[in-house]
Design a protein that fits this description.
This protein is an alpha/beta fold. The chain has a single domain, classed as UDP-N-acetylmuramoyl-L-alanine:D-glutamate ligase, CATH 3.40.1190. Helix 1 crosses helix 7 and helix 7 runs antiparallel to helix 8.
C-alpha cells in the first residue's frame, strides 16, 4: 500500500442545496442540507484513503467544537491525524456552502486569522517518508517544509494551486508537480489561454505543470507540448470538493507509478464521479466504485 502525506486545511462544511445562488439580500429556503468535513488537503486525504492508499494529514485546528468534529471526520475515514496540530483559544476553519441545481457552489469560509501562522513548522518526524507529498496553499510554512522534505527524499511533491501564489510565496518553487485551477493560473500569469499560460507558469517555476478547468477538462505540459484530456460527461449534482478529489487521486496515481497522463485520467474520473453526488466529501468514491465507473465508460 502506497503512503501519502497531505498538508493544509481541514474544515467543517455546512452545505445547503438551493434552487439558485442569491443575488440580493433576503430570506431563502434550502432544498436539502448536510454537515461534513471538508477542506482542500483534507478532502484530498480522504480521497486517497477511499481509493486504497495509506495517508497522513498535517494541518491545524483549534480546541473548539468544530475542531473536534473535523478531527473525528478524518479519523472515521482512517486518515492518520497524529500530525494534526490543535491550538487553543482560536476558531477552527468552518464553511457555509450553497450548491445550486446545476451543481455550482458558493463558499464562505472563516477561521482565526493567525491559525496557521501560530502553528509549529512540521518536523522530520511529522513528515516521515511518504511516497508522495501533496499540499494546498493555505499553510505556507507547513507546505514548504513538507515539499522540501519530498525533494530530499526524491519523491513527488504535488501542489494544488487554487490560491494566488503571491499570497503564499515559496511553495511553488519547492514543488515537482503543480496543478492549477483555471482562474488562478490565468490571474497569476495574466494570460487567459491555458496553453500559453501553462508555458509561462512552467518557465517561472521549473516544475511539471497542469491546469484543471471543470467540464472543459485538463491541460498539461509534456516536453514543451501542451496536451489535453477532456472531462467525463456526467450530470453534475454537486461540484464541491471536485478539485480536491482530482488532486488526491492524481497524487495517489503518481505514488502507484502512473505517468502524469495516466494519473490525470484516473483523477478526472474520480472527480467526475464525485460530482454526481450531493454532500461535498460524502460524494468521494471508493476504489471499487471508481473502477466500475471507468469500466462502464470504456
Amino acid at each position: 500500500m502506497k503512503s501519502l502525506l497531505c498538508v493544509g486545511i481541514a474544515t467543517l462544511d455546512r452545505i445547503y442545496s438551493v434552487d439558485r445562488h442569491p443575488s440580493t439580500p433576503g430570506k431563502y429556503r434550502a432544498i436539502d442540507r448536510t454537515v461534513t468535513g471538508g477542506g482542500v488537503a483534507a478532502n484530498a486525504a480522504v480521497t486517497v484513503a477511499r481509493l486504497g492508499g495509506h495517508v497522513r494529514f498535517l494541518g491545524v485546528v483549534s480546541d473548539d467544537e468544530a475542531g473536534r468534529a473535523i478531527t473525528e471526520s478524518l479519523e472515521i475515514e482512517e486518515v492518520d491525524v497524529a500530525g494534526l496540530h490543535v491550538l487553543a483559544g482560536r476558531l477552527s476553519p468552518e464553511s457555509v456552502v450553497l450548491v445550486d441545481t446545476s451543481g455550482e457552489r458558493l463558499i464562505v469560509n472563516h477561521a482565526s486569522g493567525d491559525l496557521f501562522d501560530a502553528a509549529p513548522i512540521p518536523t522530520e518526524a511529522d513528515i516521515g517518508e511518504p511516497d508522495v507529498v501533496l499540499t494546498d496553499m493555505r499553510w505556507r510554512t507547513g507546505a514548504i517544509a513538507a515539499l522540501a522534505a519530498a525533494r530530499l527524499l526524491g519523491v513527488p511533491g504535488v501542489v494544488d494551486c487554487d490560491h494566488a501564489p503571491a499570497d503564499s510565496p515559496g511553495i511553488l518553487e519547492q514543488a515537482s508537480h503543480v496543478v492549477f485551477d483555471r482562474s488562478t493560473l490565468s490571474n497569476w500569469t495574466g494570460v487567459p489561454d491555458p496553453a500559453t499560460a501553462l508555458r509561462t507558469a512552467g518557465d517561472r517555476i521549473g516544475a511539471w505543470v497542469g491546469v484543471t478547468d471543470g467540464d472543459r477538462g485538463t491541460w498539461w505540459l509534456d516536453g514543451g507540448q501542451v496536451e489535453h484530456a477532456p472531462a467525463h460527461e456526467v450530470e453534475a449534482i454537486d461540484t464541491l470538493g471536485a478539485g480536491d478529489v482530482f488532486h488526491g487521486a492524481f497524487a495517489l496515481g503518481l505514488a502507484e507509478g502512473m505517468t502524469p497522463p495516466s494519473a490525470i485520467q484516473f483523477a478526472s474520473a474520480a472527480a467526475a464521479l464525485k460530482c454526481t453526488r450531493f454532500g461535498g466529501r460524502a460524494g468521494i468514491p471508493t476504489r471499487a466504485e471508481l473502477n466500475a465507473f471507468r469500466s462502464e465508460e470504456s
